[in-house]
Amino acid sequence: MKLELVKCHGSGNDFFIIDEMSNQYELTDEKRAELARAFCDRSTDLGADGILYVLHSDQVDARMRVFNADGSEASMCGNGLRCVARYVCEKLSIEEATIETMKANLHVQNQPDIFEDIPTYLVEISPVSFELTDLPLHLEQESLVNGKIPTLSEELEFTALSVPNPHLVAIVEKEQIGSNLQKEISEYVNGTNELFPDGVNVSFVKPLKKGHIYVRTFERGVGFTNACGTAMSASSLVTCLNGINDKETPIEVYNNGGKVRCVVHEQEGKQSIDLIGNASYLYSCTVDVDVENPHTFTVQDSNEFVDEIMQYAKLQKHASEFLNESMNA
Ligand SMILES: N[C@@H](CCC[C@H](N)C(=O)O)C(=O)O
């Protein structure tokens, strides 16, 4: 069978979009998971952090399903939703839309460019919960805000929250960013363990200056990625809870793939986050794949988005210069 792919990224967190809204591919969930494992494999001609399936929605403009590189399905993906937002808005010639995701219908909107000539979208990150049963995290308490988990670390304080995919966030010093600690903790909580039976996305956050943070994330189902949109949103919220940043005020979030902007909202005790950043295309192609054995495929008619790639490199340079200066200040 032939599948049309668009390779896209949000802050270097890269995905394939497969449009099941306009094409009758008739994929089963088993096939979607197998395609994710096959196409995301970086030792092939493709390679990515996940696949974003765009489907018809009975309720709103479109539906997004996210499959991680290991074939597991995630309830949400912030960087991916920005790419799907662009794809759907351009396809329907609209400026804003509502996208159905596993746990919520979310508002998305085209925005002024975050950096010169960078297609930019705002996506709603919601619902937020601090209840441990929502992650799940098995501890004898209802929530964990700046609390210790001695099995993981004697020193670090963690906050656990779902947005609605599960996140474990620690505010750390510069030395801890570069250490092996995050890898060890992340591999433990994403292996067979009694704390997080479904695994968790693990973020280390380094405040840079007021309104500016750096976030590095080990993603469930993937490993370290350049950036994770839901993690940057969850981390921004955690810095507001700690008085490091302010709600209703933009927070510039630097990552290994660039930067985004987050605005934390709270209304009637309920939090949500606006995640604003690039929705960039890298190339489109056709993949001829044997669906019975998806690891056998050939990539055809590949077309690069050369101007977008060049423009994004400028944003990346700007972000990494700022990050280097701030880390060494
Ligand atoms: N990179 C994504 C999150 C993708 C899902 C995550 N790995 C999970 O399993 O929860 C983002 O930008 O939010």
TrEMBL record:
Extent of the signal sequence: none
Q: Does the keyword Zinc apply?
A: no
The answer to whether the entry has keyword Ligase is: no
Q: Where is this site: Could be important to modulate the pK values of the two catalytic cysteine residues?
A: H167, E219
In its UniProt record, a GO molecular function of this protein is: diaminopimelate epimerase activity
* Reactions mediated catalytically: (2S,6S)-2,6-diaminopimelate = meso-2,6-diaminopimelate
User: Keywords, A to Z?
Assistant: Amino-acid biosynthesis, Cytoplasm, Isomerase, Lysine biosynthesis
Location comes to: Cytoplasm
Principal localisation = cytoplasm
The first-level EC class reads: isomerase
The entry's substrate-binding residues are N13, N68, G78, N79, N165, N201, E219, R220, G229, T230
Q: Which domain of life is it from?
A: Bacteria
PROSITE patterns xref list: DAP_EPIMERASE
Pathway entry: Amino-acid biosynthesis; L-lysine biosynthesis via DAP pathway; DL-2,6-diaminopimelate from LL-2,6-diaminopimelate: step 1/1
Q: What is its EC number?
A: 5.1.1.7
* Active site (record annotation): C77 (proton donor), C77, C228 (proton acceptor)
Protein function: Catalyzes the stereoinversion of LL-2,6-diaminopimelate (L,L-DAP) to meso-diaminopimelate (meso-DAP), a precursor of L-lysine and an essential component of the bacterial peptidoglycan.
Family statement drawn from the similarity comment of this UniProt entry: Belongs to the diaminopimelate epimerase family.
* PANTHER family in the record: DIAMINOPIMELATE EPIMERASE (PTHR31689:SF0), DIAMINOPIMELATE EPIMERASE, CHLOROPLASTIC (PTHR31689)
Cite the record's note on assembly: Homodimer.
Protein name, per record: Diaminopimelate epimerase
